[in-house]
Amino acid sequence: MCEKDELTIFRLKRDLQEFLEHEKQGFSEPESETEIVKQSGENPQHVGIINNFANAILQLEPLYVDGRDGLKCVELMDSMLLSAWEDKTVELPVNDDLYYKELKKRIASSKDKAGESILIDNTMSFGRT
Question: From first to last of its 129 residues, what are the pLDDT tens digits of the chain?
């Protein structure tokens, strides 16, 4: 987790899959060790990756990430949707044709939501005053 000038790393003391398979209490957390790493300078996160991408195109700096991990995340999200739509377990990689067919079904049957838009004041969220 990254907040302000600290990176908090949680290292599990036990393999997560093993914990999930054998833990008897619901909503319990696996034991972990916490390490806090102070960060110096800026921590631009997503903005930094986008800027790096642009700078790499301009050959001003090497590319930090090439998108493969992002594509894996998208495929995982797609598999969760397809699994819910089909009400069954699906295999990875996702069957693209089946996913697209199911997605088109939902697009065809979707409707605009009725009601008026409202603006919510969230200035007090996350402990801000």
Answer: 888 788 899 999 999 989 988 887 777 889 999 999 888 777 777 899 899 999 999 999 999 888 888 899 899 999 999 999 999 999 999 999 999 999 999 999 998 878 777 777 766 666 554
Can you spell out the DSSP letters for 80-92?
HHHHHHHTS--PS
| Under 8 Å between Cβ of 63 and 48 | no
How many whole angstroms separate alpha carbon 46 and alpha carbon 49?
5
Position 78, amino acid = D
Tokens found for residue 48: 């930094």
Residue 30 has, within 13 A of its CA and on its CB side, a CA count of: 16
Query: What CA dihedral angle connects 114, 105, 82 and 50, to 10 degrees?
Result: -70
Both tokens assigned to 72: 């894996």
Q: How much is the pTM? A: 0.49
φ, ψ dihedrals at 17, nearest 5°: -60, -40
